[in-house]
Amino acid sequence: AQLRYSVPEDREPGSSVGDLAKDLGVEVWSLAARKLRLVSEGGQRHFQVDLAAGVLLLDSRLDREALCGQSPTCSLHLQLVMENPLQLHRVEVDVLDVNDNAPQFPKPEVVLEITEVANPGTRLPLEVAEDPDMGSNSISTYELSPSEHFALSINVRGDGVKMPEIVLEKALDRERVAVHHLTLTALDGGNPVKSGTVKVTIHVLDANDNPPVCDPPISTVYVKENMLVGTLVTKLNVTDLDEGPNGDVEYSFKISNNAPGKFTKLFSLDPRTGEIRTKGPLDYEESSAYEIAVRARDKGSPAMEGHCHLRVELIDVNDNSPEIVLTSLSSPVLEDATLGTVIALIGVKDSDSGDNGQVHLQIATELPFKLVSSFKEHFSLVTNGPLDREKASGYNITVRAVDSGSPQRATQKTFYLRIADVNDNAPNFSSPFDTAHVQENALPGTSVFSVSASDPDEGSNAKLSYSILHNGMQDVPISTYFRIDQDNGTIYTVRALDYEQDKVFQVPVEVKDAGSPALSSTAVVHVFVLDENDNAPTIVYPSVPKGSAFHQTIPALAEPGYLVTKIVAIDADSGHNAWLSYQLQEDAEALPFQVERRSGEIRVAQTLRESEDPHRLVVEVRDNGTPSLSASVVLVISPEENNVQDFSKSLDLPKSSPKDTNLTLYLIISLVSISLVSCVMFAVVAARCL
């Protein structure tokens, strides 16, 4: 928005200029909260803001003439910047002129000469009085003291300046009055009126009675500002009806009080030909026009002079490149910024005028930003698409300013915008399912497996911590079996594991970042417990108390192959650790009995003798683990007489073949093979489903 105020010059510092809070439509208390600050475009500080009252105050006394010189308007441009949200307001303060300066002539006394043969109507130009005030406070008119021979004439120059001239109304008689004393008074239009005076002394001379005449007396020429030094601007057309020295004219600059000597640095005048040429480089931006006064003086005695007034107006060319001013930049900006978020405030200036000063801003179309025109020569850079720090952590934004001149001139300015991270990415495990193995009876604190996760965010949003969740699948919380290092994701055992109690664990692991709000993901680690040969075989038949023997009777006439009994044992371990073998201890080799290695059947190995004493056998059951564990049982076999039927039955027992004795081994191998194939198939199907 743009605010406009006006204030008279010479007001006391601290005077109120305008009610900013009211004109901006905001509450007074919000000005301090939104960090209202004042930026002067000229670099000088003339104003201040009272945040408590919400008003714009004068910071120093203003002098319109010092600030703007002879410009018809005098405006000071300010910028008000407020944050949360970022807004820019332009303030234009018009400095009003007050009648604080009286007209003043360059010299306190002017001496003029006029020939006695001058005809009525002859004009004597006078110096123009100076009044720094403008408008109605500037010079309004001139007054001349009463005179019998002279009157005052006021002409208006092309730029509006009033030029007084003394006009001869009655023929002069030098013998009667040789010198005339007059007073010229300059009056301004202020209230009250102020004035300045100059004494005018006119000497009446003889001879040369025709002054040089400029045709036309007031003229205007137009030249381009990039005209080369030494180029002819114009040639004055001056005539003098006199002859000889009285008609020989010499030219010289007449220094104007409004621009004392300034144009003499830029233009040269040939004193004999009246040609005016450029003497230095011209600049439209410094001054668009120059008023040149030329005095044409003959060589008569007394000399007479005429005056030519030339106005040189410059034509602007596109010789200034646009200037880009970065007023404000909000960097970094959050990657979740909404569309239309203001990123920067950009101003642009071009010292040229017209189309040469019309500037257009542009940025690359592939960037997620666009330029929005706030008001004349001010733009806002806003977001025009989604931002993603993980794809682009920052942007080099190049703003290009191009004017409408011919040929066009351009300027570009590049600044870096950093994108700040928000927690918009959850951690991600390298694999949602992992498999680990651990030996049973491993010491507490044994490392089982290390999970790893990554987070594309940065800073605290990417700081990860690991924890174990309770999945409810085990009767006892999983945390009583395993723990995890929250920093590196390494899983450790809390206590020794027992394969016979739990063969596999599902350990759900959660990884969580430190963002706000925190994001997380989970993975499952299947921990398989590897069996260890930590259980000795247990004999379940015959069941004999420790330290006792099992008594078994057989027929006294039992033939070889007769089944005496069968030892049945089990092992809590699995796999090779549970494969059992049966054998007699070494001291039983001479006995007439043998034990099947795999089945544990005890049979008669040779014919028994009559009246044979009881036999004592020690059967040892040993597993296939490393190291191997064993158990033993003591049998006492007593031959005794049985009836024939029983004996016959014993003879009819089928004789065990090697194929039958290895049946158990084959069954175990088949079961293990089928189990392994099933596990592999399940793993393949699960991987494809995932």
Automatic annotation (TrEMBL):
Domain Cadherin: 6-105, 106-214, 215-324, 325-429, 430-539, 546-656
GO terms, molecular function: calcium ion binding
GO cellular component: plasma membrane
Lineage: superkingdom: Eukaryota
Predominant place of localization: membrane
Keywords per UniProt: Calcium, Cell adhesion, Cell membrane, Glycoprotein, Membrane, Repeat, Signal, Transmembrane, Transmembrane helix
Listed transmembrane segments: 663-687
InterPro entries xref list: Cadherin-like_dom, Cadherin-like_sf, Cadherin_CS, Cadherin_N, Protocadherin/Cadherin-CA
CDD domains listed in its UniProt record: Cadherin_repeat (cd11304)
Pfam families, per the entry: Cadherin, Cadherin_2
Compartments where found: Cell membrane
Gene Ontology biological process terms in this record: homophilic cell adhesion via plasma membrane adhesion molecules
Topology of the protein relative to the lipid bilayer: Single-pass type I membrane protein
Function: Potential calcium-dependent cell-adhesion protein. May be involved in the establishment and maintenance of specific neuronal connections in the brain.
Protein name: PCDGM protein
Native source organism of the sequence: Uria aalge
Lineage summary: Eukaryota, Metazoa, Chordata, Craniata, Vertebrata
Gene: Pcdhgc5_1
